[in-house]
Amino acid sequence: MRLVLVGPPGAGKGTQAEFIAAHFDIPKISTGDIFRANVSGGTELGQLAKSYMDAGDLVPDEVTNAMVKDRLAEPDAANGFLLDGFPRNVQQAGKLDEILTELGVALGVVLDLEVDFDEVVKRLSGRRTCKQCGHVWHVEYDAPKVEDVCDKCGGALFLRDDDKPETVRHRLEVYSMQTEPLIEFYRGRDQLVTIDAQGAVEDVTERAITALTPYA
């Protein structure tokens, strides 16, 4: 199975990617993982990416594309993969087509995790992170015993800037502008499968596996 996972921030892509990849026995490949591996490994592409990041600039698409190409060419991806975080826009989708054509394979399916934006704001703005150990709690779904105090280490909990409601809504606006055209692109190619990503994690996983099994 060659799969791309898309969905807004807070849709649970990272969690579902782990379960789906394990179920179908394919590597989970995220752009974050690729960047970290290249930077920590000191590869030529990693050093190039780091130079942009250190300067506070976005890493250009061509650098990201090259990293993705190298990763997809590795032996563990020969029989399939799950891509999380790439492509993010229609231009990158075209580049992914080129990469896969060079590798002699084709993309099978795109799974869209659909979630109500108000639910995303509720999910993310309810998170509280421990300043001491980094554990993430949630005021509604996984609250600590004492408000704003970490059960694990007693550290103070805080609301990260990128979890503030206004920041989350801005991230969702950016997603709508950049990634929703990508969803329409894959829908037009009959490669899109959409599932409801709200509810318990295990229920969403079950829906995802059911929807993807015909493509395995």
Describe the structure.
With 216 residues, the protein is of the alpha/beta class. It has a domain at 2-115 and 179-215: P-loop containing nucleotide triphosphate hydrolases (Rossmann fold, 3-Layer(aba) Sandwich), CATH 3.40.50. The protein has nine helices and eight strands. Strands 2-3-1-4-8 form a five-stranded parallel β-sheet. The relative contact order is 0.18.
Q: Brief overview, please?
A:
The protein is of the alpha/beta class and 216 residues long. It has helices at residues 13-24, 31-41, 44-54, 61-72, 90-103, 117-125, 165-178, 180-188, 201-212, and strands at residues 2-6, 28-30, 81-84, 109-114, 127-130, 136-138, 157-158, 192-196. The protein contains 9 helices and 8 strands.
**CATH homologous superfamily (4th level) name of the domain at 2-115 and 179-215:** P-loop containing nucleotide triphosphate hydrolases
Poorly predicted residue ranges: none
Structural class of the secondary structure composition? alpha/beta
Average pLDDT number: 93
Q: Could you please say which CATH topology of the domain at 2-115 and 179-215 applies here?
A: Rossmann fold
Oligomer: single chain
Give the tally of β-strands.
Answer: 8
SS element count, helices: 9
**From the coordinates shown, what is the CATH architecture of the domain at 2-115 and 179-215?**
3-Layer(aba) Sandwich
Following the backbone from N to C, one meets helices and strands in this order, namely EHEHHHEHEHEEEHHEH
Strand order of the largest sheet: 2-3-1-4-8
How much β-strand is present in the residues? 5-15%
Sketch the major β-sheet.
Answer: 5 strands, parallel
Radius of gyration: 18 Å
| Euclidean distance between termini CA atoms | 5 Å
Q: What's the overall geometry?
A: globular
